[in-house]
Design brief:
Helix content: under 10%
Order of helices and strands: HEEEEEEEEEHEEEEEEEEEEEHEEEEHHE
Number of strands: 25
Radius of gyration: 24 Å
Number of helices: 5
Bound molecules: copper (II) ion
Structural class: mainly beta
Length: about 475
């Protein structure tokens, strides 16, 4: 199962929050703050009134409902402690907005006047900075520099006009190291005033964030600068990240923000794409070129556009392979080629949170049920129709399907491959002799006696049962 999305549950949440805003809070001075604690993806929040646009879909997230007050669009963010499930089996205690991290995506239209209330329910002061936005200096949210910090229990208001369309982020500029390491961030999408401009069929958005959470723990180490062990799309790791279902030949946009401490080369299989936007604006067509991987720098947004013209299940992931594994993978000792099977036991006994990898590589880790500390995810996990996927972290799947209804974002299940189109085993004789570089030595493996995979006899380890 690639993803355990509860789509219907998600839409129920959306409906409840929308009616709450248009109902009893309508007359209140401050709009009610809708909240959700569900990590399920909410269907796109179509514009109920005002200008037409193609709403975005937030991976494992949702869009913040608003209300109109005169010609102001009013939103209410609540900064508060939250719990977030990274994937089934692991939940962290973090900080966020309106019940979740990342906070809800804010969507509005170029030219809109927005009034955003921010209530601080954190145990310390905060602010909100609107990353990438062109706005009056006093609305920029840099605590101490452009405004007083928002004290605990107080509500501040930000008011500005959205002068350009694009993809932005929001996050504190107040005890930043702690507050961002705790998950305080969200996406802010401003749609073009002319709905025909930059129009796509499906528009996904998410922010990358990273956490250092010891196996078995549920709080991140906030002072960590380099050594993170949970690499997330919207505070979810594979196999907890929503898949991206798209119709065949859909024009698809994916907007990717990076609020981790390192760059992420984001790679899509089976298609080429163009980078069409940054947090600075739309990239002119004359400045675009074809890519299959694009680097998303720290503190930046990149938006890619792809014509999904190849049916299938296409991997979409960070190309730093350490970022496609979960916490338990970050302490392994390399034993490839070592015949001393006893070494695995010694290492594991001496340092219980250190995992000894096999002498034939680590792929077996994807198949085994390891004795893990509670609240800890295996380093590689997730099962596809052909077996273990051996991934974690920043990995999801673009699922291109013929005949998908325009607003259907449910996981369409595994791709049904046409007969004869999957790589398969053949008789060796059919393959012929493999040419080798002249003078190249034989693989050392040939000279070593065949051995069992060490680790398979480690106590508590057993092969996973596939169904
Ligand atoms: Cu990465």
């Amino acid at each position: 199962m690639l993803s355990r999305r509860h789509f219907l549950q998600g839409s129920a949440v959306a409906l409840a929050t929308v009616s709450a805003v248009s109902g009893r809070a309508q007359a209140a001075a401050i709009p009610e703050a809708p909240t959700t604690s569900s990590p399920a993806m909410q269907p796109p929040l179509a514009p109920a009134n005002g200008q037409d646009y193609q709403p975005v879909v937030t991976l494992n997230g949702w869009t913040l409902p608003w209300r109109m007050n005169g010609d102001w669009k009013e939103f209410h963010l609540v900064a508060e402690p939250v719990t977030r499930e990274f994937a089934p089996g692991m939940t962290a205690n973090l900080w966020g907005y309106n019940g979740q991290t990342p906070g809800p995506t804010i969507e509005a239209v170029e030219g809109d006047k927005v009034r955003i209330y921010v209530t601080n329910k954190l145990p310390e002061h905060t602010t909100v900075h609107w990353h990438g936005m062109l706005l009056p200096n006093g609305m920029d949210g840099v605590g101490g520099l452009t405004q007083p910090h928002i004290p605990v229990g107080k509500t501040f208001v930000y008011e500005f006009q959205l002068t350009k369309s694009g993809t932005f982020m929001y996050h504190p500029h107040s005890d930043e190291m702690v507050q961002m390491a705790m998950g305080m961030m969200g996406s802010f999408v401003v749609h073009p005033k002319d709905p025909s401009l930059h129009r796509v069929d499906r528009d996904f958005v998410f922010i990358m964030s990273a956490y250092d959470i010891e196996p078995g723990a549920s709080l991140p180490k906030v002072a960590e600068m380099t050594d993170f062990n949970l690499w997330t799309f919207n505070a979810r790791v594979f196999p907890g990240i929503d898949v991206m279902p798209v119709g065949l030949n859909d024009r698809v946009r994916v907007r990717i923000g990076n609020l981790t401490m390192t760059n992420h080369p984001i790679h899509l299989h089976g298609h080429d794409f163009r980078v069409t936007l940054t947090d600075g604006g739309w990239v002119p067509e004359s400045a675009q070129w074809p890519e299959v991987t694009t680097d998303v720098p720290v503190g930046a947004v990149r938006g890619i556009e792809v014509i999904a013209n190849a049916p299938g299940d296409w991997a979409f992931h960070c190309h730093k392979s350490h970022h496609t594994m979960n916490a338990m993978g970050h302490n392994v000792v390399n034993l490839i080629g070592l015949p001393e099977r006893a070494l695995a036991k010694v290492v594991t006994t001496a340092a219980p949170t250190t995992m000894a990898m096999g002498t034939d590589g680590m792929a077996m880790m994807g198949e085994m049920q390891m004795p893990l500390p509670t609240n800890t995810l295996p380093m590689m996990t997730g099962t596809g129709q052909f077996g273990p996927i051996e991934m974690g972290g920043m990995f999801t799947v673009l699922k291109v399907r013929e005949g998908l209804a325009p607003n259907d974002y449910r996981d369409p299940g595994p791709y049904q491959f046409p007969p004869g189109t999957v790589a398969h085993e053949v008789e060796v004789a059919d393959a012929g002799e493999a040419p080798r570089q002249p003078g190249a030595s034989d693989s050392p493996k040939k000279e070593m006696p065949k051995m069992d995979m060490p680790g398979t006899d480690m106590p508590g380890m057993k092969h996973h049962d596939h169904h």
